[in-house]
Amino acid sequence: MLNKAMIIGRLGRDPELKYTQSGMPVTSLTIATDESYMDRDGNKVERTEWHRVSVFQKAAENCAQYLSKGSLVYVEGRIQTRKWQDQQGQDRYSTDIVANTVRFLDRKSDRIGGEESTSYAPRPNKSNANNQMEDYGSPFPSEASDMDDTPF
Q1: pLDDT tens-digit readout, 72-94
Q2: pLDDT above 60: residue 151
Q3: Is 104 exposed, middle or buried (0-12, 13-18, 19+ CB in 10 A)?
Q4: CB of 96 within 8 A of CB of 54?
Q5: Of the candidates 64, 86, 82, 85, which has an alpha carbon nearest to the alpha carbon of residue 73?
Q6: pLDDT in the model for residue 129
Q7: What's the CA gap between 4 and 1, in Å, rounded?
Q8: 57 phi and psi, to 5 degrees?
Q9: By C-alpha distance, which of 114, 107, 14 is closest to 68?
Q10: Distance of CA 42 to the CA centre of its chain
Q11: Across all residues in the chain, what is the average pLDDT?
């Protein structure tokens, strides 16, 4: 069986770092991905999907320290649905991505509305022979120049 999620998007708010009762760091991220396409009538349709992401251990602390609202990130992990009861006793569900990889795809100074001058460059992927970061292309499909011809 396979349970794997991979997204590239921007943080919708600053990361929230908390600690479990045992002292393990956990950071919650809210990441937006978007898509746009032309409908049958030729109108441009834009849609944003919001994803909740949980990051644990040292990666959680790094995310809290180096990421902020607007940061561009690549996240890879598994999808997990949690069930709980609200104050009225109703069953509630939350589907999150539990991250095992978070890559920072921009520097703080590159961010939308970023006023910070410091930057953080993640370590290059050691498996890449040229020791350079991979180019994942446009962070949002709507920013790709050839997406206006999408038939659906």
Answers
A1: 999 999 999 999 899 999 999 99
A2: no
A3: buried
A4: yes
A5: 64
A6: 42
A7: 10
A8: 65, -145
A9: 14
A10: 30
A11: 80
Q: How long is the chain?
A: 152
SS3 sequence of the chain: CCCCEEEEEEECCCCEEEECCCCCEEEEEEEEEEEEEECCCCCEEEEEEEEEEEEEHHHHHHHHHHCCCCCEEEEEEEEEEEEEECCCCCEEEEEEEEEEEEEECCCHHHCCCCCCCCCCCCCCCCCCCCCCCCCCCCCCHHHCHHHHHCCC
Structure tokens that stand for 126 in this block = 């050691």
Which single residue is written with the structure tokens 């009762």?
21
Question: How far is 138 from 102, CA to CA, in rounded Å?
Answer: 17
Angle at the Cα of 24 (from 22 to 26), degrees rounded to 5?
Answer: 130
Residue type at 118 in one-letter notation: T
